[in-house]
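User: I'm curious whether this sequence folds into something compact or stays loose and floppy. Could you predict its structure so I can see for myself?
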Amino acid sequence: MRPSNIDAAKHALGILGLLVKRIRAAWPKTRIIMRGDSGFCRWKLMRWCDNHDVEYLLGLAKNTRLINEAQPLLDEMHECFLQTGIKQKLFSETRYAASTWDTERRVIIKAEHLEKGSNPRFVVTSLHGTPEDLYQRYCARGDMENRIKEQQLCLFADRTSCSKWLPNQFRVLLSALAYTLIQTIRSKALAGTEFARARCDTIRLKLLKIGAAVVRNTRRVILMLSESFPYKELFRLAAARLHAG
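Assistant: Here's the prediction. I'll summarize afterward.
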């Protein structure tokens, strides 16, 4: 957690540096690509990537200069839409540098026209490949946002109702640990089952949030689940896999 009146990407470079260091310590020859939305598009971050053999694929916020660059393509898509009544899109590229950047970089243009009008999008990248392929690779970042939503909506990462910073930060850390635990259960204990790709709230509701009797003696703690529990065999399988390590 941090104040809301600072740049959204303020700590991104420091965190990226730590992640790259850890990844390369384990897999020194791994190709690393940073993919993110326009909130991460900062020239210092891109320069760091250029200098540290990290490639990037980042959203680029629209501005007048970029719109002017894409206007001929947008006009062409508008005409095609008027003729067909079907959504039209075309991909191209240009070289671009904002006034604050240190150098020009490759920018992918998506010129699209919908019923509601023009819908241009821009992506800055260091990667090779066709504009359409690179834009599709950028769009795949949407799954990452689904994972963030899981933690916020299913594991209460957005619950910051305390009036003090420290308890709210502690809640966020607990939520992050809970997500790590659920992801481990999903990838290791539930692999190949109907819950292998289930959301966190589905796993909580159907597999973990169940009634049980707890019996404890001097030697052990026994959890007695209901015989009518519909996922008891799956629960046994998951427990056995986790116990096996």
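Summary: The chain has a mean pLDDT of 92. The helical segments are 12-26, 43-51, 64-84, 131-139, 142-154, 165-189, 200-208, 232-244.
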